Every structure is written in structure tokens, then in C-alpha cells.
Amino acid sequence: MLTQIEGIHHITSMARDARRTDRFITETLGLRRVKKTVNFDAPDVYHLYYANGTGQPGTVMTYFPFPDIVAGKRGVGEVGATVYAVPKGSLDFWARRFEESGVGGLVRETRFGDARLRFDGADGDGFALVEAESDAREPWSGGGIADDAAIRGFHSASLVLRDRGGTEALLSLMGYRPLAEENGILRMRRGGGNGADLIDLETHADAPSARQGAGSVHHIAFAVADDAAQLAAREALTAEGFQITPVIDRDYFHSIYFRAPGGVLFEIATNEPGFANDEDMAHLGEALKLPRQHAHLRSRLEASLPKIGG
To answer: Is this model's pTM higher than 0.85 or not?
Structure first.
């Protein structure tokens, strides 16, 4: 069993409109934009990061907004829902806020005894809020939402699978253990994690395969403390037969990627060096930051990328 995994590090989705996505995450959800940079592989496209005030692993949602991308199609082999933790008693506030903002897909429900509010993101992304009994993570205080309602960070993520067996075995290797099962959903937990330590496995044996596009999760990343922990995890996964990429420097963390048995793209990302690596903590997400290999494109990118706040 791997002991290095701490929980979810970040979740990355695809979108169509950078401005609309930015407004939804910062204004409707009240999260902080902690980095405004570009896609390493497609520098004409933003890579936008949103989190709590410090960009703490386990709170970070990121987006690739491709202007001409088709709409995603829900199905198996993807992250079906990104779930945030909010304080007890706050779902009424959020339901009113979403109704006033015209947010779609609102459904009140209970899962594993927790009150939960499902809703759609700007491109139909699957989201939910869950009332958590206690959560020590600090919310972003600049988002215009009171502390007694503000998002704390990820509660969990739901993986939608045709057959959960291979992914369940992989998560077990990564230190997750079955916690409960309800209505065909298996909840697994990484004990002693970073607060974002739950994964739900939803089995839909007859569902079609997902098609990625706007509103789809591109990948889910799991956190490790540092480079040494990442290399140890990589060696263990390689020994189990997984095809793992080399370590890739993403400026704010180091990454390795591999495909889980159910089709979901997994990443393992380091907590170091963090989002204050090239920007003062008080001004995270304000200036356009470029990877070194794209620095020579600054004037063109500043002219062509959509203008978003900061």
C-alpha cells in the first residue's frame, strides 16, 4: 500500500468561455483565483486556478477554457461530480444564492447521511455542496460570502464507472479504504488525509462512455508532500504495471499521470512549491504568469487572451 497519498490535490475541467467560468467560480461560488497562466501544451488557452486564500492542496479547481470546444457528454470513465464541503446549516443559503443567480440543475438530496445540494457549473459541470460537521480549512475571506457559509475545499469526487473493480483495487493500493456503500455507490476514504480524502465510486454498467468537452473533468490529481514521496509512489505504481509518465514540472507542483482502469485520468501532484512560487500571496491570480518556455509569447498572448479580472 502507498502511504504517500494525502487526498485530492486538484481537479481540472474543460470549459468554453474563460470570462464566464471566472465569474461563476469567483462570484457565484466565492473562491479565489490563485493563478492565471496558460496551458503548457496549448499556450493560446488559459489555465485558470481557483482555491481558498492560499491555494491549499485539496481546495484547487482548475480550468482549460477552449473557446471552440464541443459540449461534453456525460457517461462512464470520468469524474461525474466535484463535491465541495460547506458548514452545517448553510445549504439553504446556497440554494437561495443559486436560484437568484440562475444556476441550473439544483437538487436537494442526502448521501451517506449528509445533506447535499447538486448543481451545474457554467458549462453543465457536475458539482455538489455537502454540509460537513467540521472542517479546519480556512475559506477565502475575499469572496463576499460569510465564513459560516463559505466553501472550505473539496469534500469528495464521484468517479462514474462501468465496472468499479479495477479502480477500487487501485485506490486501495493508494491507501483508500471502503467506508460505506449505499444505492450502489461505494465510498472510499484516505484516513488521516488533507480534508479532501473521500472518493465515491458510482457503477453504471449499461451507461455509454463519456465524451470529453466543455463541462467535462479532464483529470483528478492526488496530493503528495514532495518530490521524494512522488517518486516512491511512481515506483510502486510502475511495479504494479501502470504506465506512468515521467515527472513533469508544472511550476507550482510536479506531476505524473496515468490512466486508471476505469478510464479516468489520474495525476499525482506535489504540494510543493505552491502558488506563491512566482507571485506574492496578497496578489495571487492577478497577473498573467507564463511558463518559461512560453515567456517569449507574452505580448501576443496578452493581446489575444480574453481579459478577465485582475
So the answer is: yes
How do the domains of the chain map onto residue ranges?
8-304
What kind and span of H or E run contains 107? strand 107-111
**Average pLDDT of span 164-191:** 97
Residues 207-262 have pLDDT tens digits of: 999 999 999 999 999 999 999 999 999 999 999 999 999 999 999 999 999 999 99
Burial class of residue 283, CB neighbours in 10 A (0-12, 13-18, 19+)? exposed
CB atoms within 10 A of CB 230: 23
Alpha helices in 24-153 (DSSP H): 91-101
pLDDT at 310 over 70: no
> Is residue 121 classed exposed, middle or buried when 0-12, 13-18 and 19+ CB atoms within 10 A define those classes?
buried
Residue of 72, 61, 69, 58 whose CA lies nearest to 28:
61
Could you give the CA distance from residue 260 to residue 221 in angstroms, rounded to a whole number? Answer: 12
Q: Domain 8-304 class?
A: alpha beta
Query: Would you state the cell numbers that stand for residue 60, as one nine-digit string?
Result: 484547487
Taking the C-alpha atoms of residue 218 and residue 220, their distance in angstroms, rounded to an integer, is 7
Nearest to 134 by CA among 195, 58, 223: 195
Contacts of 75 (CB under 8 A, 6+ apart): 160, 207, 208, 209, 210, 211
- Based on its alpha-carbon atoms, the radius of gyration of the chain, rounded to whole angstroms, reads 18
pLDDT at 124: 96
The three-state secondary structure class of 56 is coil
- Structural contact between residues 178 and 241, judged by C-beta atoms closer than 8 angstroms: no
Query: How many Cβ atoms sit within 10 Å of the Cβ of residue 182?
Result: 12
**Residue-wise pLDDT tens digits, 43-57:** 999 999 999 999 999
